[in-house]
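// run 5 | inverse folding | seed 20
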């Protein structure tokens, strides 16, 4: 793998404008590409990933070694690392995207007016999508595959931390496109880690980019939201809560809480705060806290949590509303479901929140009143994932309210147009 290219600011501007022009030309072809061609490209890309797994692992080791030299945290290394199982999962994700229905051309609604005009609302690609992401190399495949399936061209700008891994994955996507007779410029990877490339993308590249999707830390997303001159699908922070109600099964709640926090602490769907009903039986709080501590999690709690186990650290005020992305969790007792709802409204990021209860009435109150992109009842917040939703993969979890919300999959990467068929009608004066 080559090292990141070092080029001047002027050269970066020219490079990015050229990429934008190529992407716009490819988007016109993709918008009309038949499903068979897109699916073949995805399957061939998956085959290539499996066949080149040793090359991918070698590239990933270069990224990991550099990250370790910088003293990178364990949770960050987990997001960056690839192994045979993860490569297989990336390849399978592309195959699952291929198995999805083609959204392009789907008739969303149709009706006929009294004057005989027949109107259809038809799903169409967005055009060119710019994706700016950080450490996760799998985003290269997920984003490229989803854009391809939805008929969009993609300009991918991965983080410097995953440069070599992303290059190796991108090469397989290009091979898949070529095998299917589709333009290789349909999925482009920015060949430099210079941040000026991000700035150029945020300008829209003279109208070439139709939407930007940032996927990364708070500072990246905030920069994109502040500077972008094109629409943004924003995914800010995953400050996810799990609330255990007095009506919960303690056995179920314990399994859900430990999984929601500890399955993978570095994902955006990991629970960062456990809320426990003050009205729950006395065994609930010590059992839940003890299970987390025994699983290797550092617990930072309120007075009630500190009192039940000497290993609990007193929570600082900013531990609530914090995205740890590590083996840490904040714990707080609340006054029933309404206390949980109020806490989430104050400290949450409208990403993913869960209630564990056996009461259907309490569950419905929570599900209706918590204004998050994903709300769950009796299930781990780690299910906040497009693949788990049956979308094949996702570009990210959108926490805004415009156009896309929740997992951003192939349908969310489309818009629509109105097709009107007449028989010579003219509008009367």
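// decoded
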């Amino acid at each position: 793998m080559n090292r990141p290219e070092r080029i001047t600011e002027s050269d970066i501007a020219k490079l990015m404008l050229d990429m934008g022009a190529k992407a716009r030309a490819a988007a016109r072809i993709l918008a009309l590409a038949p499903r068979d061609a897109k699916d073949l490209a995805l399957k061939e890309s998956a085959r290539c990933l499996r066949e080149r797994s040793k090359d991918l692992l070698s590239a990933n080791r270069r990224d990991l070694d550099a990250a370790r030299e910088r003293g990178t945290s364990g949770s960050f290394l987990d997001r960056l690392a690839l192994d045979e199982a993860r490569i297989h999962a990336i390849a399978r994700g592309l195959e699952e995207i291929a198995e999805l229905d083609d959204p392009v051309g789907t008739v969303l609604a149709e009706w006929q007016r009294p004057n005989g005009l027949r109107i259809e609302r038809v799903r169409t690609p967005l055009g060119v999508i710019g994706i700016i992401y950080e450490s996760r190399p799998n985003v290269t495949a997920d984003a490229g595959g989803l854009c391809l399936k939805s008929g969009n061209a993609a300009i991918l700008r991965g983080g410097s931390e995953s440069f070599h891994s992303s290059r190796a994955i991108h090469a397989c996507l290009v091979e898949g496109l070529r095998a299917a007779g589709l333009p290789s410029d349909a999925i482009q990877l920015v060949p430099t880690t210079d941040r000026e490339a991000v700035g150029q993308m945020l300008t829209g590249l003279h109208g070439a980019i139709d939407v930007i999707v940032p996927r990364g830390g708070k500072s990246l997303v905030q920069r994109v939201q502040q500077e972008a001159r094109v629409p943004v699908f924003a995914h800010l922070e995953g400050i996810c809560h799990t609330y255990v109600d007095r009506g919960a099964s303690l056995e179920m709640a314990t399994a859900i809480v430990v999984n929601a926090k500890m399955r993978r602490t570095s994902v955006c769907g990991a629970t960062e705060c456990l809320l426990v009903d003050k009205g729950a039986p006395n065994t609930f709080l010590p059992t839940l806290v003890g299970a987390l501590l025994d699983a290797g999690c550092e617990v930072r709690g309120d007075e009630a949590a500190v009192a039940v186990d000497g290993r609990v650290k007193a929570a600082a005020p900013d531990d609530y509303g914090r995205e740890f992305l590590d083996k840490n969790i904040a714990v707080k007792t609340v006054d029933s479901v309404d206390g949980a709802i109020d806490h989430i409204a104050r400290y949450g990021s409208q990403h993913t929140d869960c209630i564990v209860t056996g009461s259907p009435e309490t569950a419905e109150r929570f599900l209706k009143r918590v204004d998050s992109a994903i709300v769950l009842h009796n299930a781990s917040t780690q299910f906040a994932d497009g693949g788990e939703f049956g979308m094949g993969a996702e570009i990210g979890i959108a926490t805004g309210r415009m156009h896309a919300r929740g997992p951003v999959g192939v349908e969310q990467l489309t818009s629509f147009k109105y097709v009107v068929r007449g028989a010579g009608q003219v509008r009367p004066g």
